Amino acid sequence: GEDVEQSLFLSVREGDSSVINCTYTDSSSTYLYWYKQEPGAGLQLLTYIFSNMDMKQDQRLTVLLNKKDKHLSLRIADTQTGDSAIYFCAGSGGYNKLIFGAGTRLAVHP
Amino acid sequence: DTGVSQDPRHKITKRGQNVTFRCDPISEHNRLYWYRQTLGQGPEFLTYFQNEAQLEKSRLLSDRFSAERPKGSFSTLEIQRTEQGDSAMYLCASSSFGGQGIYEQYFGPGTRLTVT
């Protein structure tokens, strides 16, 4: 089955760009997703990319997909303190169930 | 509020007791998912309903776990004879076919279970 791996922690300075990386094993996911989880809050879908795309841009967010290397990344431009959260990448399995990585904790400091 | 709601938000129980959680999905969503999230991990899929039919169950869902969605609206997840290893956040999500061709899942706030 699908296995999704992420680095666990990223620290950036406010105003810099953040890049969160993810690798996955199963190339059959039709869509790949990025979710954000803030303390005490539910999971929020940030963006997604269709598996036949290489890149998707959505305001400050850029998703890059390298299908050959099974590598997905999320770039957040002009990172703000409000972006501090845990970011999960996820693939999709049967019935569109989500298969999540362990999450990357993003800390934004002044 | 028309989002996914879950009840209770927190539950503390003693080992061996039974617990039941409720999820109310977004009203027009026919797909409903349960996930479990333990500390420091991402959510793991437990089970999936399409309308009232339970179409998939993870091997994580031992025979102590049962889920229902009797009228295709709200869903319940029951854990019998709870164990300390059941302590986790239980998340519910609902979805329907979106305009951009994906089934976007909307998550509830979760029920945090602590088994003592």
Explained architecture:
The complex is a heterodimer of chains A (110) and B (116). By secondary structure, chain A is mainly β. In chain A, 0% of the residues lie in helices and 57% in strands. In chain A, strands 2, 4, 5, 9, 10 and 11 form a six-stranded mixed beta sheet that branches. With 116 residues, chain B is mainly β. Chain B contains no helices and eleven strands. In chain B, the strands form two sheets. In chain B, strands 2, 4, 5, 6, 9, 10 and 11 form a seven-stranded mixed beta sheet that branches. Chain B has a four-stranded antiparallel beta sheet with strand order 1-3-8-7, with no helix packed on it. In chain B, strand 5 (44-50) and strand 6 form a beta hairpin. At the A-B interface, strand 5 and strand 10 of A face strand 4, strand 5, strand 9 and strand 10 of B.
In short:
The complex is a heterodimer of chains A (110) and B (116). Chain A has 110 residues and is mostly beta strands. Chain A has strands at 4-6, 9-13, 18-24, 31-37, 43-50, 55-58, 61-66, 71-76, 85-92, 98-100, 104-109.
